[in-house]
Amino acid sequence: MDERDLIESYYTNPNTTVEDISAGLPLIQTGQICQFLDTLRVWFEEKNEQHFLIVGPHGSAKT
User: In the chain, what is the greatest distance between 2 CA atoms, to the nearest angstrom?
Assistant: First the structure.
């Protein structure tokens, strides 16, 4: 099967609780957050030697 034929799916874990978050989970991993992390993960790989810029409005957790 060709990688282009795969459909990525993301979901929000309904079992994540406030206690999980306060116990050290850095953010609530909703489906959208998982999708963003997968997109950004490519840029953080060691073999990637390209510079990149994260752009967004003030207060949108770019750091």
Answer: 42
What is the Cα–Cα distance from 58 to 63, expressed in whole angstroms?
11
pLDDT digits (tens, 9 = 90+) for 12-53: 777 766 666 556 656 777 888 888 878 877 877 778 888 888
The residues spanned by each domain of the chain are 1-63
pTM over 0.70? The answer is no
DSSP structure class, residue 4: G
Buried-state track 23-40, b at ≥16 Cβ within 10 A, e below 16: eeeeeebeeeebeeeeee
User: Any idea which residue has 């950004």 for tokens?
Assistant: 40
